[in-house]
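Forgive a beginner's question, but might I ask you for the amino acids of a protein and the tokens describing how it folds?
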Amino acid sequence: MDLFEAAGRDDAGTPAVRADAPLAVRMRPASVDEVLGQGHLLKPGSPLRRLVEGVPGAVPPTSVVLWGPPGTGKTTLAYLMAAAANRRFVELSAVTAGVKDVRAVIEDARRRLSGGGQETVLFVDEVHRFSKTQQDALLPSVENRLVTLVAATTENPSFSVISPLLSRSLLLTLRPLEPDDVAALVQRALVDERGLGGRFTLADDAAAHLLRLVGPDARKALTVLEAAAGTAHEVGESEISLTSVERAVDIAAVRYDRDGDQHYDVASAFIKSMRGSDVDAALHYLARMLTAGEDPRFVARRIVIAASEEVGMADPSALATAVSAFQAVSFIGMPEARIVLAQAVVHVATAPKSNASYAAINAAMADVAAGRGGAVPFHLRDAHYSGAKKLGHGQDYVYAHDAPHGVAAQTYAPEGLEDARYYEPTGRGFEAQVATRLERIRQILGE
């Protein structure tokens, strides 16, 4: 049973909210106009808007699966669907509820309907945690509309919700809240009588720190704000300061400005620590950036660059690790992305180092920029088009796979750069093997 059920109902049958309920519950939007960040689902005339506004035509009600990150409004939308049509709201958590609980709610809903009572909105939070058997138990009631199911999940429903349930429901995807949305919610909570009622103000640096800590999670933002207000009250202050926020969440504000000098200083130290093989320092700077709210994709891009620029052929697998980390970060996000990034940082920082590939392309590009290098040798030119052979294109070309060791002794470089040496491998890691092989290759090519 949730906070609404425990608090009872008002005269209209709408779930009431206890006066001592958490700020995140008290500030739950009372109308669709207060919902932030989900405009793509709440356009005039959209199915969801008709459901939450109780517009004629939205009945009979439609069961819904809401997919989105934590704190984006899934519970709020379920509540609004119940309140709009004066339906009874019952919440179950898939973490603690079993088939017995589901059947009890459905049986109660059946009795109410047969007695002319209220329809029931059953909100199942974290439905992906229900087993197939538990989800199967919902099917008859959804099929017969004994309840209006609103199932919330943070996991992809295509993999976590059974197909029969999905086919009987409207699938809606909620987007992560933007920083401006969370900031607006915090400001509303400061002044709204349901919230802090103007009893506190929030310092600018405290607001910035709070927003960095909570990311797109509205519920977490209000929880932190309430705790910080309590801390300020204890010391007799009406302004919620940075210190109050730090004490409330026990996380110090990191001095890091994503648009200022600190951003570049920390990023520079991060890269140089990986280059210098100090894995502990590299992990510290990684933690500093992530704690300050840096975009994990920015960090992942730096690791990819370092894997090639600083490690290169000394350990070619470092680049594969870094690229895999970037891809993983892109689709799992924080906070789990920190683990993936840490693994990639450890690989790059502890790998043998070589910047030979980096130095080689820079030297080659310097020659090109200086205008060095003549025409492509005739035997290397394209000989496939009509008339090319008459011009001598491809003549005397030796197919490398036909030569001993797969290396054909012929000139490849353009005129004037026959003796150019751009790539000079080190003796570190895998590149030591490359150096031995390259020495023999150059001997063959020079014969």
